[in-house]
């Protein structure tokens, strides 16, 4: 929500020149890709900057703007000093130019939080609530016992602690979405008259989605799932409380709650809780249908197809992927249609239908080759060439063409940005599995060792552990091959009970 003190950023508006906000946003995203950043810039973000609602961009945007306008400082771009926005001086802390993954988008010093920033898989968005006194935040230090949070900046540690809050009240749940105590939240509990849901609450729901995706990118799902259920409950409480809300706010709230359900469903999926995931995806689909939101419906069907394939319900996976393609037909996103075609290809492969798989793969490659567009959903930031390659690898693996699968998995692992630790570990686990079955035990063992390195570091994913356990089972009879015994011994020592 705009601050009453917002001052239009005329300098930034001058830099946009004659381009429309959407055209300028596309230039920002292109510049981000050139330096390896991923930001969710759209016309709305540009409008918020120009209106003065975003007084200082987060660090990802700062790097992108620095690339676009060499030699210009944030002040030259019309932004306020970071420490002034964050109220850092009052806390006696010195900003670090190298601190990653935080945002000052919002109205610093008043507990406000910005909802825009980078996103999804590959996001660089974090919360920036300025309230650092709530002792409930200290519970986040137990979020990942094996994590290496000590390597993060002090600021990011604060940001992460604010991401999820334990507690049973609606107020605490609302705070876990990033905007602190919610005016009227107690009414959700007591039945008192409810206040109107506004843009700040909706923005916080959207921010929670981005935060969950960011943490999943970096660490995997296992340590996140139960914490993420808290903001999900809060989001649907807001949706219920805002039943009389109309217009764009209502649409954003429904979309945000649905996307949050999908994000939490994915955490359940990746951590082996398939029934929980099915429930969350169904909740998102119902929300999409009630709201008439085709984009959310397509996303829900996309994840439902993936889940059905993993659960061995391949015909359901085909139907869900095809339903997603129908829902997304008018959205104008070739990349979304490409991903849904890959979901369909994987389902046909699971059924052993090579012809059906090849048709869907061909369609996916054609659509992907048309390139990204402004119509691509924000959540699809993870879907690039590496993901396309690994999804094709999974198809050939399901069809028993191990050597071909290994070639695609190898491409995925080579192309993947190491910053996305969870996805890189997944691609390597896929490669190790395919190499093991393609009669390359030494190479499979070496790749398995690299996956173990990730699992002993910051990555937690039951899905990846299960894949690696399967590789170890396949390599068991080949213990005498170079490197295999060492891998098997290390895997056995590191093995932990899988949560299902």
TrEMBL record:
Q: Where is the signal peptide?
A: none
According to the UniProt entry, which residue ranges have a biased composition of type Low complexity? 95-105
At the top level, the lineage of the source is Bacteria
Location of region: Disordered: 88-122
Which InterPro entries does its entry note?
A: TPR-like_helical_dom_sf
Q: Where is the composition biased (Gly residues)?
A: 106-120
**Name of the protein in its database record:** Tetratricopeptide repeat protein
